[in-house]
């Protein structure tokens, strides 16, 4: 039977949650947002058959030219590859009109890898999880840096540091940083005459997770990251958090060396990251048609 693709609306909330909760192929990772806040966005799409939602994709774009696919669900026994190929040109056009330059998605489930590959996405990196199973903090070199809790007025400068420290697909802009500041339990900055780095952690029950650690490139190699990491760990250890985890890119050997020095080890959990460049509405459609021939 024919399927129909359309923009999602808030009226679809219950059906989308039923799809996510009732079927095996589903992911939803919205960090500090709720699903409802994104259901009227240009990158929230559903696929219907006879009025029933059988697939859902949600893209999130905040302070960045990158759209992150943070929600995906396909009903059991449906062809995920075919459904996304039908939906993708319209989603790509919609976000390109909003100024997006690239769409990126994490394949939290292996089922998403062939879906993105068939639509022309390429694998950009792999994110690995590292875990610390003890509460030891190693000695670290002294540094002329002060660590303190972040205040809301720090957000613009923190965003500047973030943009210099990461490539665009990983940027946290002022909107995301403000959301995090309001919701996470511990958010700190490193400063000399100005803010040169920051970090924040979150808790999931007693599971502590170091969400972010960034140092201005001009100050890297001066133990600033080690001091931010040590202070983040002290906070979690004082709470009795266990386990303590963090994520990093598989190719980021410098960060992994720091984390290993602090007792973090790879868990074996890896998530591939896929991206597709948007060249404008016309070429997006043409590329898709060429691939389908």
Helices and strands, with pairings:
Blueprint lengths: L3 E4 L5 H10 L2 E4 L15 E6 L2 E9 L5 E9 L5 H17 L5 E6 L4 H7 L3 E11 L13 E4 L5 H11 L8 H10 L2 E6 L3 E10 L2 E9 L8 H16 L4 E6 L3 H9 L2 E14 L3 H12 L1
Parallel strand pairs: 5-6, 11-12
Antiparallel strand pairs: 1-3, 2-5, 3-4, 4-5, 6-13, 7-12, 7-13, 8-9, 9-10, 10-11
Helix pairs in contact: 2-3, 2-8
| Count of the domains | 2
Structural class: alpha+beta
Helix content: 25-40%
Task: Indicate the CATH class of the largest domain.
Answer: Alpha Beta
CATH fold topology of the largest domain = Aminopeptidase
- What does the largest sheet look like? 13 strands, mixed
CATH architectural designation of the largest domain: 3-Layer(aba) Sandwich
The value of Rg in angstroms is 21 Å
How is this structure best described in words?
It contains eight helices and 13 strands. It folds into two domains: 4-126 and 272-292, Aminopeptidase (3-Layer(aba) Sandwich); 134-242, Gcn5-related N-acetyltransferase (GNAT) (Aminopeptidase). The mean pLDDT is 93. β4 and β5 (66-74) form a beta hairpin. Strands 1, 2, 3, 4, 5, 6, 7, 8, 9, 10, 11, 12 and 13 form a 13-stranded mixed beta sheet that branches. 31% of the residues lie in helices and 33% in strands. α2 (80-96) crosses α3 and α2 runs antiparallel to α8 (281-292). The longest helix is centred in the N-terminal third of the chain and has 17 residues, at 80-96. With 293 residues, the chain is an alpha+beta fold.
